[in-house]
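Input (structure):
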C-alpha cells in the first residue's frame, strides 16, 4: 500500500500542477484510504519468493538471501576477462577484490548495491543480480556485462526491457566498485540512457545523483524532475525512501510542503514514516541484538562440530575467539570477530561433511537441535537485515557502514551452512528440522 500511495503522489506532482486540482485529487485519495483496509504485505511482484500460500519455511528465507543461480554464456570467442575489461580493470586477484568490495558501504547517492537489486523489474536480470551478490567473481561480473550488451530489448507496456535493466545492473556494479571501474562516470551515462526506457531504479538513482551532487552536479530542480517520475510506472522503493530522506534532511526543498501535505492526508503513510523514525531511534539497540544473534550462532556452530565428532576443535576455536574478543576493544569490533569465527567453524564443518561421517543416534539428535536453532537464528537475521536497511535509507550511515557488510556475511554464511546441512541430513538419516519461520513477515 505504501508504495502504491507514493506512486500516486509522484503522478500528482508530475501532472497536477494547479494547487486546486492537486487538492481535489488529494481529497479523493484521502477518502479512499479511509475506506480501504491495508494489505498485510502489499502487492507481491513475481519472482520475489514470498510464500503466498502462507507456508513458512527456512529455505525460502535463504533462497531469498542467496538467490537463484543464473545460467548464462559469453559471446563466441569471448572470455570473462574480455567482457569485464570493457568496463573494469582486470587483474589476477579481481574476484577476491570483488568479494571484499561488496561489503563496502558507500556514502552518498549509492550506499550498497545489495539493497537496491529488489527494485529491478526484470526477473532474469534480478536472478543474475542475486547470483552475483551470492558469489561476486570475475565470471559473474562478465555475465552482467554480457547481458547489458545482448539482453532482450523488448519493452513491456508497464516497465523496462531486459536489456534496460541489465544496463541498470551494470551501472550498479560500477557504482559499487568505483575503484575497479575504468571510468566510474560511465554509471551516470548508462542511467541517463535508461531514463527514457522506464527504468524506475535508474531514474531514482539519477535523482539521488542530483540530490547528493556526487556523480552529477547538485541540482534540486533536476532532482524534483527525476524523483517525480521514478515511480510513474510501478512502485520503486528507493524513490520512496529518497523522498522521506529529502523531507527529513533538506529543509529548503521546494517540493517539501507539497509532499508534506500529501503525507498528512494518509494515516497509513504517517504510521510508516513514524515506524522508520522509530527504527532510527532504536539503532542503539540494534548492535546488541546482532551480537546476541551471533553469540547464539557461535553456540550452534559448536553443537554442530561436537555432533560431527570434532569436540577438541570446538575448544580451539573458543580459545581463539576469546583472544580475539580481548583484543577487539569494544562492541564494534566484536561483530567482525564473530563473523570471522563463524567462517572458521563452517570451513571445518564442510571438511567434516565432505568425509561423509557415520553418526550415532545421539549425534543425529544433536544435529537436529542445531538445525532447529539455526532456523530460528536465520529468521531473526532476516528481520535484522530489514532494520539495517531502514538505517541506511534514513541517513544513519555510520551504523549502517559498521554493521551492514559484516552482518550480510554472517547471514549468507548461515544460509549456506543450513542448505549444506540439509543435504547431509537427508543422506544420513538426521530428523528434519521442526522449526517454523515466516519469510513473509513484514519488517
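Output (sequence):
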Amino acid at each position: 500500500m505504501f508504495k502504491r500511495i507514493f506512486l500516486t503522489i509522484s503522478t500528482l506532482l508530475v501532472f497536477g500542477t494547479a494547487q486546486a486540482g492537486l487538492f481535489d485529487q488529494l481529497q479523493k485519495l484521502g477518502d479512499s484510504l479511509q475506506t480501504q483496509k491495508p494489505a498485510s504485505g502489499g502487492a507481491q511482484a513475481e519472482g520475489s519468493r514470498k510464500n503466498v500460500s502462507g507456508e513458512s519455511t527456512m529455505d525460502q528465507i535463504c533462497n531469498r538471501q542467496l538467490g537463484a543461480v543464473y545460467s548464462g554464456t559469453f559471446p563466441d570467442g569471448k572470455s570473462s576477462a574480455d567482457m569485464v575489461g570493457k568496463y573494469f580493470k582486470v587483474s589476477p586477484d579481481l574476484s577476491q577484490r570483488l568479494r571484499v568490495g561488496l561489503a563496502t558501504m558507500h556514502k552518498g547517492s549509492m550506499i550498497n548495491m545489495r539493497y537496491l537489486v529488489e527494485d529491478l523489474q526484470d526477473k532474469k536480470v534480478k536472478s543474475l543480480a542475486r547470483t552475483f551478490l551470492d558469489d561476486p567473481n570475475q565470471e559473474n561480473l562478465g555475465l552482467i556485462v554480457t547481458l547489458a550488451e545482448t539482453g532482450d530489448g523488448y519493452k513491456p507496456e508497464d516497465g523496462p526491457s531486459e536489456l534496460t535493466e541489465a544496463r541498470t545492473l551494470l551501472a550498479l556494479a560500477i557504482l559499487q566498485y568505483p575503484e575497479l571501474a575504468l571510468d566510474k562516470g560511465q554509471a551516470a551515462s548508462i542511467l541517463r540512457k535508461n531514463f527514457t526506457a522506464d527504468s524506475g531504479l535508474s531514474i531514482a538513482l539519477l535523482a539521488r545523483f542530483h540530490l547528493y551532487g556526487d556523480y552529477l552536479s547538485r541540482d534540486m530542480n533536476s532532482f524534483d524532475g527525476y524523483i517525480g517520475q521514478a515511480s510513474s510506472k510501478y512502485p520503486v522503493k528507493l524513490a520512496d525512501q529518497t523522498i522521506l530522506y529529502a523531507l527529513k534532511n533538506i529543509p529548503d526543498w521546494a517540493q517539501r510542503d507539497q509532499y508534506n501535505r500529501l503525507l498528512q492526508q494518509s494515516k497509513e503513510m504517517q504510521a510508516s514514516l513514524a515506524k522508520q523514525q522509530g527504527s532510527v531511534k532504536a539503532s542503539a539497540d540494534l548492535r546488541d541484538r546482532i551480537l546476541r544473534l551471533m553469540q547464539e550462532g557461535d553456540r550452534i556452530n559448536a553443537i554442530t562440530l561436537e555432533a560431527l565428532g570434532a569436540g577438541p576443535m570446538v575448544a580451539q576455536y573458543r580459545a581463539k575467539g576469546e583472544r580475539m574478543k580481548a583484543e577487539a576493544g569494544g562492541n564494534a569490533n566484536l561483530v567482525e570477530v564473530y563473523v570471522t569465527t563463524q567462517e572458521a567453524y563452517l570451513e571445518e564443518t564442510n571438511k567434516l561433511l565432505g568425509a561423509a561421517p557415520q553418526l550415532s543416534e545421539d549425534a543425529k539428535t544433536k544435529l537436529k537441535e542445531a538445525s532447529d536453532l539455526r532456523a530460528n537464528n536465520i529468521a531473526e537475521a532476516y528481520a535484522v537485515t530489514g532494520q539495517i536497511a531502514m538505517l541506511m535509507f534514513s541517513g544513519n550511515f555510520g551504523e549502517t557502514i559498521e554493521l551492514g557488510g559484516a552482518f550480510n556475511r554472517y547471514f549468507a554464511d548461515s544460509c549456506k551452512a543450513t542448505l549444506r546441512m540439509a543435504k547431509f541430513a537427508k543422506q544420513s538419516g538426521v530428523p528434519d528440522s521442526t522449526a517454523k519461520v515466516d519469510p513473509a513477515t513484514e519488517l
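Notes: The radius of gyration is 23 Å. The first helix runs from residue 2 to 15.
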